[in-house]
Amino acid sequence: MLFDNLDSLKQYQGKTLPSSDWLTVDQHMIQTFADATHDQQWIHTDPEKAAQFSPFGKTLAHGFLSLSLMPHLIEQVLQIKSVQMGLNYGLNKVRFPQPVLVDSRVRLKASLAKYEEMPQGLKIFLNCTIEIEGSEKPACVAEWINLLFE
């Protein structure tokens, strides 16, 4: 959705944004995240060992990898022309109900729960769900707070 300014975004409070495109979480993405975060646990980085010993039969993405995809995915569904800068303010109520297995596809579903006025901008609260294609349970649910400045 493309909004002209923050005032037009306010009208969307309580409404669900369109879903993002599906994104494949492949082994290269998982390994790159493991390298960046120094989390080299074999369940993420060793496909052969995971095939043999994991109850999932394959590697899986870090929970924080699922969470870290939110900025990329929200850009696909929410753009505000007048915003000059946005800042990640934090997260509330983060949960990882279902692991993302390698080569799964995920997407973001979000709604604007509420907003708070700030000088030159808004603090927005997004209820976010990272869905896994073909799974009833999501990979991640979180309330994501952003500061947007015009």
Describe the protein's architecture and organization:
There is one protein chain. The strands form 2 sheets. The chain has a 5-stranded antiparallel beta sheet. Strands 1-3 form a two-stranded parallel sheet. The protein has a single domain, classed as Hotdog Thioesterase (Thiol Ester Dehydrase, Chain A, Roll). The chain contains 6 helices and 7 strands; from the N terminus they run E-H-E-H-H-H-H-H-E-E-E-E-E. 26% of the residues are buried. Strand 5 and strand 6 form a beta hairpin. It starts with a strand and ends with a strand. The radius of gyration is 17 Å and the shape is elongated. Helix content is 26%, strand content 37%. It is of the alpha+beta class and 150 residues long.
Helices, strands, pairings?
Elements: E1 2-3, H1 6-10, E2 23-25, H2 27-37, H3 42-45, H4 47-53, H5 63-68, H6 70-75, E3 79-80, E4 85-95, E5 104-118, E6 121-132, E7 140-149
Parallel strand pairs: 1-3
Antiparallel strand pairs: 2-5, 4-7, 5-6, 6-7
